[in-house]
Write a structure and sequence with these properties.
255 residues; two-stranded antiparallel sheet; six-stranded mixed β-sheet; globular; alpha/beta; Carbonic anhydrase
Length: 255
């Protein structure tokens, strides 16, 4: 807490005036551009690696960057994530929803460890909110990962896109650069796009092209950011060599 308080004092002396001016600019006419779901991992600093600023994004963080499927969120069990979608996309008219996973995700490492556990795990789940959260809302990701394992990590996976009739294909880590846990993290990131599209209140915007869903993945140990390209059917490193092609894809399909 001492370090936090020292940080507040540094902010007051160096950043406060600048931020207050930025707040004043967006106060009466806010135009956030994205709802950004990511992990609560302390190494994830999305405003820094996207170079976004005050008023640019609604950011929602949790263990494992999970967005519960609509079937798991009734009126008696609601979570922050669908509420954030409604606030952002329905009430504020935000056009882009982004899910960003990352390497060495402790939540995904735990889900990977638990993926083959039998029902005796139920007693343990009662004692661990984190494990219960992962098993309930990460189960579909673990199922997709099991399909990938059966193909020795070679076959593509199929995910639902904006509508039940629209699909996209994904090759997960075709160059085999990452660990199994990181492969699961990439699968999980894409699964959340399917979960986002499961909400009735999102359907109209997704169907009519007023809302778009995207996936990013951050490699913590290299600082590289990957964008899931539906044209290339895989996560593509966002760099000087790929940027022009990615920009063309985004401008063609997501504007």
């Amino acid at each position: 807490m001492y370090r936090i308080l020292q940080g507040v004092m540094k902010y007051r002396h160096t950043q406060r005036e600048v931020m207050v001016r930025q707040f004043e600019v967006v106060r009466d006419d806010p135009h956030p551009k994205a709802v950004f779901f990511t992990c609560m991992d302390s190494r994830m600093l999305p405003t820094r690696f996207t170079q976004t600023n005050v008023g640019d994004m609604f950011i929602v963080r949790n263990a494992g960057n999970l967005v519960p499927h609509a079937n798991l969120c009734g009126h008696e069990e609601i979570t922050t994530e669908p509420a954030a979608l409604e606030l952002g996309c329905v009430i504020n008219g935000i056009k882009h929803v982004i899910v960003c996973g990352h390497s060495d995700c402790k939540a995904m490492n735990m889900l990977h460890m638990m993926r083959n556990s039998d029902r005796t795990l139920q007693e343990m789940l009662k004692l661990s909110p984190l494990k219960a959260w992962l098993m309930r809302h990460g189960h579909s990701s673990a199922g997709k990962f099991a399909q990938l394992e059966l193909s020795n990590f070679q076959a593509p996976l199929v995910f639902q896109a904006e509508t039940p009739m629209r699909r996209f294909i994904a090759y997960i880590d075709p160059d085999n650069k990452f660990s199994e846990e990181d492969k699961l993290s990439q699968v999980n990131t894409l699964q959340q796009l399917q979960n986002i599209a499961s909400y009735n209140f999102m359907r109209d915007g997704l169907t009519r092209g007023r809302v778009y869903i995207h996936a990013l993945w951050f490699d913590i140990y290299t600082g590289d950011i990957y964008y899931f390209s539906r044209q290339q059917k895989m996560f593509v490193d966002v760099n000087e060599n790929n940027m022009e092609k990615l920009e063309e894809e985004v401008l063609k399909y997501y504007t």
